[in-house]
């Protein structure tokens, strides 16, 4: 197993490089880069940059004409100013040289500094990471803790009234988007229109630092309840149906009939034989579920509950064309996804020791 893990870890390097190549190449063809955005801001502030654009007197009336005072929006920015911006952002170098330099720094986790925030990208990611980890980890854990027992019970009581009613609930949960469910939770339980039981914004209270250890734990759990419930709703529905169908498929196999014929109890049959085989496909869905919450739905959930996490950070960086933050976030997301995939394989072996990835590779 050690050799297999080593091969997977070594495969992470070319995979993440391939991800970065594709995205770096795409950005070369996307209009509205950082220089264009800065130029647009400068052109909208002709009074401030009048001297830069045309050397005019700041007290001169702005006519807005190309031949008049020095209005940057009409006359355009001087080539010297554009060249200075290109040099500052590194666009004076060929794309290949810029990419190689970026990857050399990224391999040592040097993501540079945000162009528009004047703060290290690593510090930004570390600052926003707790929010995204909270949503991803707790939502996935909650979905598994509820969905697996519920799916097993639905499989055992397949066709009963319990199975019918829970299936209707699961389908409704699957049909409701996470962000819409989040809005509903805010309206009902966060002071939107009815009860004010939970806070509607932030990960902790403003007086969090002054609370006792137990008080900080309660305050943290109090704040994350609604965001975590909203994030886990879609994963809960999918995982419940997946667990039920997987157990139904295994229950009908010959080895289950043989185990029952030997006199084993139903609990021993389910959790001693069926569980190990049925859970393989459920575990296989763990990376997709975790990353779906961590990367996909986190943006909308973070926005609704005013949580400042990686989802909002990456979105704002993409809109602003803040390439250090954008590519740094992508690099971190890619690494997390690849590592979670390796952990999924390890969980396969933990659930069923008969699986030998090294022998299959050979």
From TrEMBL:
UniProt KW keywords: Cell membrane, Membrane, Transmembrane, Transmembrane helix, Transport
Membrane topology, from the record: Multi-pass membrane protein
Family: Belongs to the binding-protein-dependent transport system permease family.
Domain annotation ABC transmembrane type-1: ranges: 129-348
Organism: Paracoccus pacificus
Classification via PANTHER family: INNER MEMBRANE ABC TRANSPORTER, INNER MEMBRANE ABC TRANSPORTER PERMEASE PROTEIN YEJB
A matching Pfam family: BPD_transp_1
PROSITE patterns documented for this protein: ABC_TM1
Plastid among keywords: no
Subcellular location: Cell membrane
Protein name as it appears in the record: Microcin C ABC transporter permease YejB
Alphabetical list of SUPFAM superfamilies matching this protein: MetI-like (SSF161098)
InterPro entries in the record: MetI-like, MetI-like_sf
The keyword Cell division belongs to this UniProt entry's keyword annotation: no
Source taxonomy: Bacteria, Pseudomonadati, Pseudomonadota, Alphaproteobacteria, Rhodobacterales
Transmembrane stretches, start-end: 9-26, 129-150, 171-195, 220-243, 278-305, 325-351
Source organism, top-level taxon: Bacteria
